[in-house]
Amino acid sequence: DLTPVIRYLRALGNNKSMSVTNLTKKLCWLLATCGFLRPDDLRCTDARASRIIKGNLELMVLFPKETRQGQKIIKPVVIYPHPDEALCPVKAFIEYRSRTQAGDRAIAHPKDPSRLYTPLIRYVRDKTAATGTDRISNHIKEIMQLVPRNQDEPPFKARAVGATQALLKGVPVDDVMVHGNWSSPMIVDSFYRVSRSLASSFTKVVLS
């Protein structure tokens, strides 16, 4: 149930008047949830290679965890806008870049020092400094704590919550698999599905 999160994001107010701390947390959570991205993916996202195309956000993740035939890859991730600005990852990205772009500088990629890139997520107090995976993870966790769960359950991952919400809303598992760059539906079901409830009510179908 993402209702508490949605309520929180709306309470933050307009992107332009939002503190950079809250904007950073909001952006990290929206990208992780809507893009099925790990904190490490966000750390490896190249700000200058990412762009808005026809209203959609295309992120370029350099050298994610996934590989192809043992080789590092560049993973493009397309994220669509939301009509509600409070929930729109594209508008949050645009505002975040307007505040951090002046601090852009190319640095060595953490997974390949020979490759330069411009990290997307920056430290709140230093717009020229890249933020590490742990801090990005903490940004996401602060919002994920609002998602209700049983006391004996570990905190949910934004990537898993995003995939689960998509499945519950009827998005085909093949589409979820492609968006998350997963190799098979079994991986989605085993590792990234928080709930096994289905969007369709078979009881209503059978007994109607």
UniProtKB/TrEMBL annotation:
Taxonomic superkingdom: Eukaryota
Any single biological process term in GO: DNA integration
Annotated protein name in UniProt: Tyr recombinase domain-containing protein
Family matches, as InterPro entries: Integrase-like_cat_sf
GO terms, molecular function: DNA binding
